[in-house]
């Protein structure tokens, strides 16, 4: 939790201009560095703390640049300060109370957020979709279930942040409500929504601006050629139109990219970042290195270890020199003290369109189902203490979360991709696969071999 002094300064920075802002910004910068790097309460390695400091400052710089360009509206900013800054980032009394109560009851701190995919339906049919979504998919979580999940994490965990994924969330409909109605209902929470962007027309962008508690992360695969190749002809043009609509109404947005062996080289070119940050006005970029799950599993698509290293070097330049807010999953595992899955303190869990509760979007296995949990009179907290989740958290602790000064290699943080043998032997016993693809992967010896070979390289 950032201190009250820092939170006060941050609000001032976002609300001021010119020399006043420069002055407050310098003060904030110094104090943030002291709090994270010098004071370092958990005694993490200094380099780990430096990454965290650069990450936070690059987030701030990316937003400030877009405020100055006039593509984040004042109306949006006012709302976002209330929700994202005062709620999701800094915390308030209500959240502290929830956190304390949770610790008293369970002897550990709660997770910070959930990722929910309320629908499997999607208007596209992308190659290698991690969710294997398509337009014919009809699986949906009902509005009342989505609402109850969010209400519980809000009340029991003090959470003020949630991620919506899919399927395509803009296709979600239940009881006459859409995903924007959810955002409206939880106006003191902030939402990040992964979307293909093709359904963000002017009216949707205008509504998002008025809501002020949602930022869309739009999927691209590179430029037009790479995006249309995977997502379908004409998709990239629609994405650029969505960018324009969001700029027009002042909604900050980002892009989300799957890094594969084929596009990894593109992601280390400086021009790529110039184009999206400077020309298109994104406020953040999430890079997800391909995870062999979902439709058309292919372990050979994972970026090679050499490419992964080059991407790490490029990420450092983005943060430290260009001050651009980029997260590269999994190279950026260092800023979250490693893997954040399995409902770890400050981490998250994932719930799909069937209600299955998974440790992570990229770990397609489960034990509990939220609809069954609610029907049995239990709460989301009960799902945190399955053997599956407990074993995952135990591994996280052993791998370094517990050992402040001497963690494992957090550049290889992933419980499933970077440590597959351990995952299969020690974490994933007695689990159910989310779908047929996950079942095949778990049972296939050649998949096991390919994953282990990758980890050992
Ligand atoms: S399991 Fe892997 S992808 Fe999921 S949170 Fe952990 S490190 Fe990230």
UniProtKB/TrEMBL annotation:
Q: Which SUPFAM superfamilies match?
A: Radical SAM enzymes (SSF102114)
Q: Cite the entry's keywords alphabetically.
A: Iron, Iron-sulfur, Metal-binding, S-adenosyl-L-methionine
- First and last residue of the signal peptide: none
Q: Which residues cross the membrane?
A: none
* InterPro entries to which the protein is assigned, alphabetical: Aldolase_TIM, Elp3/MiaA/NifB-like_rSAM, rSAM, rSAM_sf
Which branch of life, at top level? Bacteria
Could you confirm whether the keyword Metal-binding appears in this record? yes
Domain Radical SAM core, residue spans: 106-328
What Gene3D superfamilies does the annotation carry? Aldolase class I (3.20.20.70)
- Please state what the protein is called: Radical SAM protein
Which species does this protein come from?
A: candidate division WOR-3 bacterium
Q: What is the lineage of its organism?
A: Bacteria, Bacteria division WOR-3
């Amino acid at each position: 939790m950032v201190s009250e002094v820092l939170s006060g300064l941050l609000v001032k920075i976002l609300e001021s201009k010119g020399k006043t802002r420069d002055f407050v910004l310098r003060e904030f910068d110094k104090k943030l560095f002291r709090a994270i790097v010098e004071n370092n309460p958990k005694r993490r390695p200094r380099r780990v703390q430096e990454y965290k400091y650069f990450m936070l400052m690059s987030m701030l710089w990316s937003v400030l640049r877009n405020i100055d360009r006039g593509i984040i509206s004042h109306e949006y900013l006012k709302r976002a300060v209330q929700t994202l800054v005062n709620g999701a980032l800094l915390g308030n009394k209500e959240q502290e109370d929830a956190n304390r109560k949770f610790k008293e009851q369970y002897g550990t701190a709660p997770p910070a957020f959930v990722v929910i995919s309320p629908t499997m339906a999607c208007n596209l049919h992308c190659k290698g979709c991690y969710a294997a979504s398509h337009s014919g998919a009809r699986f949906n979580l009902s509005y009342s279930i989505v609402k109850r999940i969010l209400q519980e994490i809000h009340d029991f965990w003090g959470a003020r942040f949630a991620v919506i994924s899919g399927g395509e969330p803009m296709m979600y409909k239940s009881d006459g409500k859409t995903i924007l109605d959810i955002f409206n209902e939880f106006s003191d929470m902030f939402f990040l929504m992964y979307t293909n962007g093709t359904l963000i027309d002017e009216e949707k962008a205008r509504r998002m601006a008025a809501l002020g508690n949602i930022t869309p992360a739009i999927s691209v695969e590179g430029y037009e050629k790479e995006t249309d190749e995977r997502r379908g002809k004409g998709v990239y043009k629609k994405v650029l139109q969505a960018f324009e609509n969001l700029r027009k109404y002042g909604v900050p947005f980002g892009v989300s990219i799957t890094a594969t062996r084929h596009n990894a080289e593109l992601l280390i070119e400086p021009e790529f970042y110039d184009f999206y940050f400077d020309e298109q006005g994104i406020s953040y970029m999430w890079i997800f290195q391909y995870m062999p799950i979902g439709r058309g599993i292919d372990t050979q698509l994972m970026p090679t270890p050499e490419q992964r290293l080059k991407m790490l070097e490029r990420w450092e330049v983005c943060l430290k020199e260009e001050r651009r807010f980029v997260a590269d999953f999994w190279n950026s595992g260092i800023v979250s003290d490693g893997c954040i899955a399995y409902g770890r303190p400050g981490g998250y869990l994932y719930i799909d369109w069937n209600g299955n509760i998974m440790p992570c979007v990229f770990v397609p296995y489960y034990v509990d189902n939220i609809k069954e949990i609610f029907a049995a009179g239990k709460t989301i907290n009960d799902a945190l203490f399955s053997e599956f989740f407990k074993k995952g958290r135990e591994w996280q602790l052993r791998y370094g979360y517990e050992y402040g000064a001497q963690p494992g290699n957090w550049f290889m943080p992933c419980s499933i991709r970077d440590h597959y043998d351990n995952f299969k032997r020690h974490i994933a016993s007695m689990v159910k696969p989310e779908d047929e693809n996950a079942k095949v992967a778990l049972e296939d010896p050649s998949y096991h071999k390919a994953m282990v070979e990758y980890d050992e390289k």
